[in-house]
Write a structure and sequence with these properties.
Elements lengths: L2 H22 L10 H74 L14 H60 L1
């Protein structure tokens, strides 16, 4: 039986006792007049005190319920944020892996220092080779910049994910604290 049920039962019993005392008042005509008002005043005072305690309990329960709902909403929002950041981090890691493979393939195509072009017999072939090398150098530099951007983004997402997990843990700890206070 919860405390609220016990308090309500006590209030009902006290109310019945007060009604019974009030109904018996004419029968207690032989009792001294001063005893009756004190008894009914004490019963009323006890009822008032019990009602005040009940109100305080209800107010505390209402505050705890509202606090719990707010914390639960925050935890749910935090979980959604964590899922979003984790998805972004996974996508960035996938893009970084694809970028690394592309860089590996570009480096596998041969050196970009121009040593192979000098050995070509005709000037047109050397010029074409040097143009191709120049274009490959630009592409390689662009791919390296892209890879660095992806590494930075992955690092930022990992940091953000870590911070959001800490916030989630804080909200969870507060919910646990609230749960302990309700018991």
């Amino acid at each position: 039986m919860s405390r609220l049920q016990i308090v309500l039962t006590t209030v009902v019993v006290l109310a019945r006792a007060a009604v019974a005392l009030g109904a018996r008042t004419p029968l207690l005509a032989q009792a001294p007049a001063a005893a009756r008002p004190e008894t009914s005043d004490a019963a009323v005072a006890a009822l008032v005190a019990e009602v005040r305690a009940l109100r305080a309990d209800l107010a505390a329960a209402s505050r705890n319920q509202l606090r719990g709902q707010l914390l639960l909403g925050r935890v749910q929002m935090q979980e959604q944020r964590l899922a979003y950041l984790d998805k972004q981090r996974a996508e960035t890691a996938g893009a970084l892996m694809a970028q690394a493979q592309m860089m590996s393939m570009m480096r596998f195509q041969g050196p970009v220092d121009g040593s192979g072009c000098a050995a070509l017999p005709s000037p047109d072939q050397r010029r074409d080779c040097e143009q191709n090398l120049s274009m490959r150098k630009q592409q390689l530099a662009e791919q390296e910049r892209r890879e660095q951007q992806l590494r930075n983004a992955e690092s930022e997402l990992a940091n953000a994910l870590s911070a959001e997990q800490a916030r989630w843990s804080d909200f969870n700890a507060r919910l646990d604290e609230l749960e302990r206070s309700v018991r």
